Amino acid sequence: MLEVIATLPRGPVFLAGETLCCNVTFTNSSADNQSAEEVLAWSSVQIICQCTVSESRVQLPRTTALSTEEASTTGCETSFVPNKGERGLTVLCTKPKILFCDLKLAPGATRTYQYEEVIPTDAPPSFRGQAVKYSYKVIVGTQRLEKTTKMVRVPFRVLVLFGLNDISVYNETEEIAPSNPFLNNSRKENSVLDVGLQEVISLYFIFIFNTDSYNIANGRGKVARFLLFKQAYKLGEDIVGMFDFDVGTVPCVQYSVTLQSEEKISEECRRKPGQGTAITSYVKHQEMCLNTLRTHMNIPIPLTATPGFMTDIVCQRWRLHFEFVTSLDKVDGPESVPADCEEHQWQGANTLNVETMVWDLPIKVFPTNPIHASSVTLMKTSALINMANG
């Protein structure tokens, strides 16, 4: 029995532009020394990205996708079709890399090969929306002599930081690099991960020092003032804001804040001209606030979410969705408690005449360190197949 195992040693999350490393191990698990050795004709590895869409909402232009036949011939000159059996359309197919030809394994023998491939910086991110889905896999194809091709599929996730160009511009040249006679001056080039994290931090700091104050009002007056300490966040961060109801003239009974993403299909890909935007809600903070002077909210951004991005098919943006329930009548609060009174009870009104107002505040969500995102993912880092003799 021959086993083929493909493993992603660093984890299943990568930043576009990084080098993906996959270890492929071939093992002849026959314990009987009298068994014949296993012979494999070849093995090849490559990366594909499949795009799956809701046919009731999206119609893809012919130029944005590769059919099964095209994917097998466009940069994929092997005898197996990597997207065979996959749903959707292939939007990315890297050139195949051959691991070996004519491999012989004696009973109990094991051979491990390392596959490395750079994920294109212009690749779409991994995304599971209501109308569009982008999914990545490492495909390992292996064939015995005169047998059918067997494939191992290892799914992984890609985070994209748009604007990340050639990393050579981030590496110091010898002319401008500082020199120290007491140190080894060998130049160390930045990795794509280092550059990507630097770029996230640079973009991040553009927004975090801008504390914004918003006056929330309706036709009857001012409801509250909302303070948001920054407008840009990374995956896994908490969105912290403060409400000041003391400045309001309209009594607010309850408020809620929901973290939402907007999935908007491009006009040329919409199935219907008047098609709306799909909204996905993630985390909700809700609080009763009648007679409250000040309070705050704290909403975590899931590490499993997809940062804002745009492709030829879909655009995703992030926002905070606010709902305020205000009273149409004046609500008297509790009276001041006398100093000599130990207990004081206030009974609110049984019914209130209320109305609801909504407000959407756009925010920016950037990728985080892919190693951090790997710590919470449910994706497996390895896959295995058994190649029977039949």
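The record above closes out task 2.4. Task 2.5 opens with a second protein, given below.
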Amino acid sequence: MYYSSDYSVGQFYDDARQATRCILDNGRVPIVTSGTGLYLRWLIYGKPDVPKASKEIASEVSFELADLERNGHWDAAVQLVIKAGDPKAQFLAANDWYRLRRSLEIIKSSRSPPSAFEVPYDSFHKECDSSVVDTNDISSSADVVEEVKSKELDYDFI
């Protein structure tokens, strides 16, 4: 399998899920090692339901930010994305141009900031937390969390 320099977490998710299914179909157990927390969270909990930008929107965003990036005007680029509708852009790590571009793509694709979309990892843990009623009863809490996990996750991750 060939990976370009633009390999994304979304592509990883698709590839890893396909490989997992193939390995399981052959009666084997897949083992995942290494990777960033983001990639592993997506593999385990699923993709967020965030729109993928069309090629036109991606080009428009790249063009819009190109001069700012080329000239090192990070703060001006952040202000542009904030004005477009993502106030949380100010909290991005300095010079994280990929995430800044992605935020603007999401806004232009959906008219909503990235924070408007549910992240499966967060919703899964909220559901687990709300299902656990008596946190003093450890055995009961563990049973409820296991029940929620078995209902929500595609695979039994260890």
